[in-house]
Amino acid sequence: MSNLLIWKIFDSNVPRDLYLEWQSLFEHYGVVSSQTPLWVMESINCFGLSNCKIFFAYDKELLVAVIPLIKIERRIKGVNFRILRNLSHNHQDVFSVLSHEGYADNDIIENLCAWIKESYTNIDVICCRKLFISNHFKFDGCYSIESYNSVAVFEAKNNRLIDLVSKKLQKNILRHKRNLSEFGNVQLQVSRASNIDKNIQSFLDVENSGWKEKEKTSIKSNSKLVEFYKKLVHCWVTEEKGFIFSLALGDEVIASAMAVKFGNTLTLHKIAYDEQWAAHSPGSILIQSIFEYCDTLMIKSISFGTNPKWAERWHPQLKSLIAFDVPTNSMKGLLWKSYLSFKQIMKK
After folding, report:
1. Residue 78 near residue 328, CB atoms below 8 Å
2. Inter-residue contact 268 to 201 (CB < 8 Å)
3. Which residue, 88, 67, 73, is CA-closest to 25?
4. What are 58-101's pLDDT values in tens digits?
C-alpha cells in the first residue's frame, strides 16, 4: 500500500467540493465526532489553530482517509523540536483516523508518516496521542509510547444496556431518586430541534454551577467555547444525531448531558449536575435514565468519551488509547530516535 496513496494538503480553506467529499466519507464510515469536517473547522476557529493542516489520502480518484495535523515546537533540554501531531485540545478526548472500510488505519498512518518523512525537511517528529484504533498497530520506525489514557464504554451486544449496570448500583440510584422525588417530580427530558436553544442554555447553566463557575473553567465562561458547542449541537440535532439529556426536578434542570449518536454508538461528550443537589446523585440518575432511553432506540453501545474516576462504579469496559512517535531523518529526529531507543532499553 505504501506507494498507492496520494496525499493532498489544505489549511482551513478546504474547497467546497472536497468538504462535501469529506462529509460523505464520514457519513459512511465515521465513528467519533472529532472526525467530522464541522468539528475540525470549528476547533480551528475556536482554539486559534491556524497551524493546522488537513491531509487527504486518495487511492486514485477515491478519498480513503482524512487526518488533521498541527505543527508545533517543543523545547526539551534546550533543544527546539519541530513536531507534527494530531489535532487535539482540552475538549477533544479521543483522536481517530477517518478512513474507508477497505483500508486499515495502521497502513494509512504508516503511509502518511513515510510520505511526510520524504516530503518535509522541516519536521523532526510525527507524534500522536489518545489514538483510538481497533486493529493491530505497529510498523517500522514507530515507537509506541506508554499511554495511561482509556475510554469507558458499554457494549450491550445481545442484552439491554441497562442490564450492564449492577443491581447494587441500580438499587442505590433508585433510592436517591425516591429521596429526590420528595422535592418534586423527577423526569428525563430529551431535546428536540424545536427546543434546542433552551436545552443548550440549561446545560450551560448547570455546567457553570459550583466550582467551575468560581474558577472560570466552565464552557459558559468562554464565549468562543459557547459558540463552538452551540454550532456542533445545532448541527447534530438537525441531523437527528445530537441530544441534550436533562434531568428535571419539577421545572428546574439539575443535571444535563450533551451527547451525539453515530452509527450504533452514543457518546456522552459532557455531563454536569447542579452541586447543591449532589447528595442525591443527580448525575447517576441521569446516566441510568440515558441507558434506559437508549434501550428504547436499540442503541447497542455507550461511550463516556474518556474514563473519569467516577465511572469506576459503573464497571465499564476499558478501551486503551495509543500514543506513538515517529522520528524523521533530520538531525533532531535522529536525536529523538536515540532518546526513545534508550528509554526502551531501560524498560527491559
Report:
1. no
2. no
3. 67
4. 999 999 999 999 999 999 889 999 999 999 888 988 999 999 99
CA distance 180 to 288: 15
- How do residues 284-303 score in pLDDT, each as one tens digit? 999 999 999 999 998 999 99
Side-chain-side CA neighbours of 78 within 13 Å: the count stands at 0
| The pLDDT of residue 149 | 80
Contact (Cβ atoms closer than 8 angstroms) between residue 254 and residue 282: yes
Nearest-5° angle of CA 83, CA 151, CA 285? 140
> CB within 8 A of 305, min separation 6: which ones?
93, 94, 151, 267, 268, 269
DSSP conformation letters of 177-239 = HHHHGGGS-EEEEE--GGGHHHHHHHHHHHHTSTHHHHHT-SGGG-HHHHHHHHHHHHHHHHT
The 8-class DSSP code of residue 106 comes to H
- For the chain, give the number of residues: 348
Residue 277, exposed/middle/buried by CB under 10 A (0-12, 13-18, 19+)? buried
Output the CA–CA distances (angstroms, integers) from residue 300 to 29, 164, 279, 291, in the order listed. Answer: 17, 11, 31, 10
User: What's the N-to-C CA distance of the chain in angstroms?
Assistant: 33
Give the cell for residue 65: 482517509
- pTM of the predicted structure, to 2 decimals: 0.90
What is the distance between the alpha carbons of residues 33 and 27, in angstroms, rounded to a whole number? 11
